[in-house]
Amino acid sequence: MTAKLALEGVYKAFGSNHVLNGVDVAVEKGKSLVVIGGSGTGKSVMIKSVLGIITPDKGSIRIDGVETVGCDGNTRDALMKKFGMLFQGGALFDSLLVWENVAFGLIQGQKMKRSDARDIAIENLRAVGLPARVGELYPAELSGGMQKRVALARAVATKPEIIFFDEPTTGLDPIMADVINDLIVEASKSLGATTLTITHDMASARKIADNIAMIYKGQIIWHGAAKDIDQSGNAHVDQFIHGRAEGPIKMEL
Q: Which architecture characterizes domain 1-82+161-248 according to CATH?
């Protein structure tokens, strides 16, 4: 069976800084993969490489079996329509109303009429527990948790086949983080979407993942079912998931 998203032997360096050193990882259709790892381990560069924001130096990135590294602009545009993304920090447009933020991909990407797009935006806001009146506010008028819900509503509004979640619970208190995790699971399951999440929040990883992979020094050093993470047999994984200062992972000061 062809993986929905597959990376093989992906390398990327910035000068002498080798960020990705042969990443191999795949996500099956409809499954949720969470990639864990510390800061500077290559998580964000990996996602940017999939989205075409960064071009890998070497390797293969396939979406539904279609090679994306070196593909032409039309192929890239068609593939990108399959994606939704919740950015770290939400990344909402300050100058747009909340409903316009949620409807952005519908209006700009799908050229939908504003009135129709607004109806879908309000429907998606309700799905993440926000009343219709919130749609008429600006992002600056919302709390951090509400902004994250709006960002999630935007990520799923176009009914994407693949959704990326970039540190979805960063900056949230534990209760709100758990609410967001529940909403991510609900939204992903209702769409039947394939999801890739990068995070260092183990509570989030355990809740939303079918499978977990750990990236360290630009390589996937462990990949398995979420339920098996506590018996990984990998000292790096064990140190990371328990947040211990002592172990094979050393902080670079």
A: 3-Layer(aba) Sandwich (3.40)
- Taken in order 211, 216, 220, 221, the sign of the CA dihedral is negative
Task: Find tokens 């909402």 and name the residue.
Answer: 92
Mention every residue, 6+ apart, whose C-beta is less than 8 A from residue 94: 138, 139, 140
Q: 11-35, pLDDT tens digit by residue?
A: 999 999 999 999 999 999 999 999 9
Residue keyed to tokens 């990883």: 205
**Helix, strand, coil abundance in the chain, percent, nearest 5:** 40, 25, 35
The burial of 53, by beta-carbon neighbours within 10 Å (0-12 exposed, 13-18 middle, 19 or more buried), is given as: exposed
133 CB-near residues (< 8 Å, 6+ apart): none
**CA pseudo-torsion sign 228, 179, 103, 189:** positive
Domain-wise residue ranges, the chain: 1-82+161-248, 93-159
Contact predicate 128/177, CB 8 Å = no
Q: Indicate the residue type of 148.
A: K
pLDDT in tens, 75-115: 888 888 898 888 876 688 999 999 999 999 888 878 889 99
DSSP 8-21: EEEEEEETTEEEEE
